[in-house]
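Q: Two folds, back to back.
A: First:
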Amino acid sequence: MPFRIATSLIALAALSLAAPALSAPRYFDGVPHPRLKPAAQAKRLIVIDPGHGGKDPGAIGQGGTYEKTVTWSAAKELKSLLEATGRYDVVLTRTRDVKVDHDERVRIARARQADLFISLHADSAPNANTRGASVYTLAARAKGRSKRITNTQNWIMDVDLAEQTDPVGDILVDLAQRSTQTQSEMFADILLDNVENASVLVGNSHRRAGYYVLLAPDVPAVLFELGFLSNAQDETLLKTKAHRSKLMRQVRLSVDEYFTRQASRG
């Protein structure tokens, strides 16, 4: 799980910094306090986020293809591939053509204590010649926004800080963010290595941004751009089940490799 490696550091922080606490840390004012995570389950939980939906079509291709349609089709295909392995439970942030707010997408992943969050999108650019897949992880400049999520959403952790002081809470937030970011970056690199076998990659294919769906401080997350709908060749490919399935098989292989590598690190 994401934060087991930090447990001893958190315990030391609590012993050295915590004065008798009169109230819960400020992060948890007005929201449920953190609770202990249950013992590790047999299956990993993956949350797949089909971008856009409902009245929000996302990018629209030259031939009229909606991004929301491409991401929904790809999400269903990836869900089937992951579940067929028997290793994963899979949750979709939307199960039909509806608009789901960004904060709700993040809340779903955090409430379900997801082991990995994969947001699927299709890009657009002013230059119609630009094409290829890319992967986004959280930019360093956005980490402050990530911390503020704990003010509005229950923070599920491996330890209970309800009786700790603000300095300990600060340390835990920082440790959580560092651990989560490291894991997100690792999965992004694995994903790009595999996707390169099935698709063209755009230049600077591992990108950083402050997209809201990447902000959860306790769930490793990536945003996967499947290609550019503004490019006629990418649009044609993304409309075909054969190409989407080829991409999603690489995502499934990447998920397997990611958790295998995690297990090998103990």
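A: Second:
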Amino acid sequence: MTAGDAKLRAMSRIILVPLGLLFGFKPMEIPGVEFSGVVEELGPGVTEYAAGDRVMGTTTGLARGANAEFVVVPVRSRMGVLTKLPDSLSFEEGAALPVGAMTAWQLLGKAGPLEGRRVMVYGASGSVGSCAVQLAARHGATVTAFCGAVNSDMVSSLGATRVLDYKSQALSEAGAQDVVFDAVGKLSRGACSPILVKGGAYVSVRSPTSEKVYELRYLVRLASEGRIRPFIDRRIRLEDVPEAHRLVDSSRKRGNIVVLID
């Protein structure tokens, strides 16, 4: 479960219905965007998978999401992505990886090559931010991270060279940066301009991203090799999803919340 799940829940149908008419996006009857599990049944013409395959993916754009015992995902569609889950990853890891990792990777891609560059991640303890720290560090960047002091050790373990407390330390303390990655949508480019070098890149989760299965497969490979890992804050039962939404709304969530289903 991510902040995006909570935002979709909170969005009015007055907003979502026009989006559906324009882009084919449907208001969610069942929430939950990320999942992993085992293929139970195949639709007509599906040959890429077999019953019993371990899979993971998203239900983005679909009306019926992943907070359920079963999900139906179109294999060839703009709605949702699906790929096989390697044996080296648990179902919990598979469910926690897609949205945070794909969002972080696409936004870092907009910043250009990372090797040898200084990257600041603001909001580094969340689903997107924790993936951004790992991906930037694994691709040769020196990472400075902003998060709450209680999450300092966690973010350091993910690859950040410096960790600053967003409550008590100013952005200027990060020093000059080649890339500023706003993982929580709370910084403006203007606020970051004093620390961005000439020609530096500012990217934010407020920018649109799209899900691409080839990118998910690349990120799954990195995870299966142990080069990145989704940070799982806690595990809950399906009946506790409302409480998880309240935690997300409080802005105290770290990494990902995984919903377990018998």
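Q: And?
A: The two ends are 17 Å apart (CA to CA).
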